[in-house]
Amino acid sequence: MAVAEQHTPQDSVLPPAARTGTRVPTVIVDDVHIVYTVHGAGTGKGSATAALARLVMRKSSPNVRRVHAVRGVTFTAYRGEAIGIIGSNGSGKSTILRAIAGLLPPESGKIYTDGQPSLLGVNAALMNDLTGERNVILGGLAMGMSQEEVRQRYQGIVEFSGINEKGDFISLPMRTYSSGMAARLRFSIAAAKNHDVLMIDEALATGDRAFQKRSENRIKELRKEAGTVFLVSHNNNSIRDTCDRVVWLEKGELLMDGPTDEVIKAYEKHTGK
Ligand SMILES: Nc1ncnc2c1ncn2[C@@H]1O[C@H](COP(=O)(O)OP(=O)(O)OP(=O)(O)O)[C@@H](O)[C@H]1O
C-alpha cells in the first residue's frame, strides 16, 4: 500500500494555484482512494499447513478482502470554513477524516494539510482506568499545552463537559462514566485548544441538548479563531447550525460539494425526508 504524502506548511508544497488569492487553503484532498484490507474475511479457518504453504509460496490468503471505502474524492478546505460531511451509513465519512488526520494511508492520491489536523472522534483515546481529572491533564499535555496552560484551563474544561453537574464524577475513573459522559469529556478536552484543523466525528450527537448547544457555540468560536472545522454528523440540523459548506459522500464518492442549504436539500430529497 502506498504511503500518503502528508505535508505541513513548512514544506511549502501546496500547489502554486492554491497559495494565491486571499483564501488560505488548510486541507487539500486530491483524487484520494482508500482501501481497507480485511483479513480472515472468508468462512472456514483453513489449516496451519495451508497457511505455512502460502507463506512459503508467498501467496496471499484467500480470506483477504479489500474494501474500497473512498473513491477518487477531491476537495479543498479553506481557513475559516466549517464543512459538514454527510452521507448514508458506510459512505466513507469517517474514513476520509481519519485519512486527513494522517491515521490511514491513501491507496492513491494525495492529502496536503496546513498544520496538524486533530481528529476528535467519539473513540478518541482516553485512559479508562484513570480518573476524568487525570485524563484532562494528560489529554491537555498530549495536545501540546504546557502544565501551566492545563492548570489554567482545567476548571473551564470540567465545567464545559458538565461531568460534575450530578456529583463529583471528575475524580472517578472514566470506566464509571456513561458513553455520553465520556464523549462529552473528550470533546471538552479537545475543544479547549485552538486547532488549525479540527475534525469532529459525531461528537454533537452524544451529549444532551444543553451540551450540544455549548459544543455548537464552541465550534463557532473555533472558526472565528481562523481554524477549519469538519463535522461528520447524521443530524442535519447540527450541520445547518454549524456549517456553511457541505460535502456529500455516497458509496465512497463525492456526490455534491456546496453551500449547506443546497446540499442538505438535495440530500433530504435523496433520503426521502
Ligand atoms: N477498519 C475497517 N476495516 C474494513 N472496512 C472498514 C473499516 N472501517 C470502515 N470500513 C468500511 O469502509 C466503508 C466506509 O466506512 P466509514 O466508517 O468511513 O463510513 P461512514 O460514512 O463514516 O459510516 P457511518 O455513517 O455509519 O458512521 C464501509 O463499507 C465500511 O464497512
Automatic annotation (TrEMBL):
Keywords: ATP-binding, Nucleotide-binding, Transport
Origin: domain of life: Bacteria
Domain ABC transporter: residue ranges: 52-273
Single GO term (MF): ATP binding
PANTHER family: TEICHOIC ACIDS EXPORT ATP-BINDING PROTEIN TAGH
UniProt family annotation: Belongs to the ABC transporter superfamily.
Name of the protein this chain belongs to: ABC transporter ATP-binding protein
